[in-house]
Amino acid sequence: MQVFDAQCHVHRCDEGYSGEDCGKRRGEEEGAQVIRMESEEELKERRVRVTGGGIGRGCARITSGNSLYFSRIAARRSGWVVRLRSAAHETQLLRCIVVGVRMMETKDFVAEYVQFLQFWLRIGGGDLILCSSTSSSPPVILEYSTDGGIRWHFLQEFPPRQHHSPRLVRIQAKGPVPGTGLDGWENGMPWMSTTDRVLKRYCNSPVESAVFHGSRHEEKFALTHDVVFRDHDVLMFEMAVECGAMFSEEEKVSFEYGIVDDRGLVEWSLFRNALHPPSSSSFSSPVPFVEPSIFYPGNWSRVLLTPPKRILDRPVLIRWIQKKGSGFSLRHVYLGPACPNHCSGHGRCRNGLCLCDSEKYLGVECRFSERVQTGLEEHFEDHDDDDKSGRGHVNGLIYHGGWVDFFCGRKSWNERSLVMGGPGPRVVLTPPLNTSNTSSMMLTVGIGSSVSSDPKAGCFPAWDEKGSVIVDASVDGGLTWSPPLQVLSPAHFQEPRPIWIPLPDSARGPEIHFRFWQPFPSDTDSSRPHPRPTWSVDDIYIVPNEPGMTGLEEDFQPLHKAQWFRISNGKISQTCGAPDNVLQFGQENSTLNSTSRHVHVAESPD
């Protein structure tokens, strides 16, 4: 402030200020300013003036800790809360007001090189008594001053109807925003804000991880500062949701990126959208099918994502958010150049180099140090799931969303198989296989049924062409997947039937995983009025190329098992007056077939 002396044509600045316009305060902070709104003492220290409000939780928590809360106790208006982050350019004051009754005003500070103003805002919502708002409720107005608060300039208006839930507001200043890479909590992870978070060992983790927790009905999230993805960058992290609890769609965690729109509001999009097979019984795809970047309750898993092209070379925010649930945990978050073969899924990336998980994995790609098995054969006959938990493993196969049982509860339909009828994602993963000398695989698949649904048996028919089962392969431990090796349509598999799938060169190598899975529809998929069809897989046969038999001769005296891949619902017996054993098929309403091993059929000399 200044006082002008007309007789002497001089001005006198208030104590602590200097310069021709008294705009410079001795010891004034420059650059980015952070006001966390955690205590009244902080407001006094930061010289923030508040009218009609105070520090507290308000209508509901916005981020971790307290916020500045303006309630109906101060005036008959809808409550609102704010968390201020930083300021725009020049020496300024900032003020947020609701006309006539509530106001927050910052001190003046130099922010010539600061590039944005950012804060969280909620107007109404939450508690119906203290925090309700109507269409007639006044907006919150953001203003700034460059002359110590004598004159105020309009910056932006925030209508209540757009802010019933907490929203991040960002007012961008001129100039580019530099990108910031991510490389772990311990190395200065650029987190802007989070809900309640502790660092501890979670869900049997050998190292500390960041655990985001709180009331089941409150949002939990982790939000970064600006990051910039360059071409060939990847994002890799490890996550556990609800520490392996049973599937629950409402406890999912969404991974999203945010772009600031023209209004200063952050618009959020899933980092990866779903790409599922079309509703067609005959098609091929040159690109992999993928699920969206939504994660459901489960133990620790490693995730790798590539950024969408639309966000390359521009500043974006990224966040993990859980609307409901008891919490989730993150560890080893990395953004940067991809590592060789993504460390084969056995290590984490740092500065483009692999840190292998254990001594079992060696080399620049963290390959297995021990020999990988060369074949897999499984018929599920010696295993039964009594608890129907939906998770398990058989002979190295890992499955989610299924159990070993009779398909659709009908014992007359084949023998036991792996029935995939759980409520969440349905996926079967093989162990790593050396397929360098393997040219094909065989398996038996059934999708839905031609009979009416039987929910008690976990069976739903195929109502339409949706519900296809996809077979694909991975060379990096399941972090990325190939274009489909085969897409199995319900139209062709309402009765279980064997299928032979040739392996392309991309699915042949020293360490290949295979995946059999059915896309999981989102909760907003209005085009799916019926449940997904139950499906099953059986008789998985992935073995190296065999010399093969040059002929087939079988007299069933006894059965020569080495010659047969599968005999379904058949038995060796004497029947119909036959003097010797025969292979008899006679069970009604059942799948009846016999499949031999490979037989080389030579061209007839005739």
UniProtKB/TrEMBL annotation:
Keywords: Calcium, Cell adhesion, Developmental protein, Extracellular matrix, Hydrolase, Metal-binding, Protease, Secreted, Serine protease, Zinc. Extracellular matrix serine protease secreted by pioneer neurons that plays a role in layering of neurons in the cerebral cortex and cerebellum by coordinating cell positioning during neurodevelopment. Regulates microtubule function in neurons and neuronal migration. Binding to the extracellular domains of lipoprotein receptors VLDLR and LRP8/APOER2 induces tyrosine phosphorylation of DAB1 and modulation of TAU phosphorylation. Affects migration of sympathetic preganglionic neurons in the spinal cord, where it seems to act as a barrier to neuronal migration. Oligomer of disulfide-linked homodimers. Belongs to the reelin family. It is found in: Secreted, Extracellular space, Extracellular matrix. Its main location: secreted. It comes from Darwinula stevensoni. This is Reelin. The keyword Calcium applies. One of its GO terms (biological process) is cell adhesion. PANTHER family: REELIN. Gene3D superfamilies: Galactose-binding domain-like. GO terms for molecular function: lipoprotein particle receptor binding; metal ion binding; serine-type peptidase activity.
